[in-house]
Design goal:
single chain, Nucleoside Triphosphate Pyrophosphohydrolase, alpha+beta, two-stranded antiparallel ribbon, globular, 35% strand
């Protein structure tokens, strides 16, 4: 179950994942973490082809839903551990905003961190690597990245 929220993040109800992703536009919270290394490169994950939203595209290093009963910070730490195997990091909040697609509305809490330790991508991801910022900028608008990432990347670099 996901919490339903208003645009400030106050919980107003609850719904299933399916109810949130079926075009209902029920606003639910998600977390994003942008992981930079000390050289200034940005880690991106490649979404698996089996994903129902934006399959095969490169995306924010970590992205996931906040579960009902979980704080944003708890969800962030859980998702980072599950997706990249990282447990020791210091998140810095960048922004929060409403993202809307044809299928859903999300209240996105965006964080960034600098991390030089080992990254162990989970089976949830098809690939992952650090990208030089010039390479990211050269590929914006070419259908390589998710629209959500493209709309967010300038806020963090």
């Amino acid at each position: 179950m996901f919490p339903l929220v208003d645009e400030e993040g106050n919980i107003t109800g609850a719904a299933t994942r399916g109810e949130c992703h079926n075009g209902s536009k029920l606003l639910h919270p998600v977390v994003h973490l942008h992981v930079f290394n000390s050289r200034g490169e940005l880690y991106l994950q490649k979404r698996p082809e089996w994903k129902d939203i934006q399959p095969g595209k490169w995306d924010t290093a970590v992205g996931g839903h906040v579960d009902l009963g979980e704080s944003v910070e708890q969800a962030l730490r859980r998702e980072v551990r599950e997706e990249l195997g990282i447990t020791d990091f210091t998140p810095q909040q960048v922004t929060h905003y409403v993202f809307e697609s044809a299928r859903e509305r999300e209240l996105v809490f965006t964080y960034k961190t600098v991390y030089d330790g080992p990254v162990t991508p989970s089976d949830e991801l098809d690939d992952g690597r650090f990208w030089p910022l010039e390479e990211i900028r050269a590929n914006l608008g070419k259908g390589i990245f998710t629209p959500n990432f493209e709309g967010e990347v300038e806020k963090v670099i």
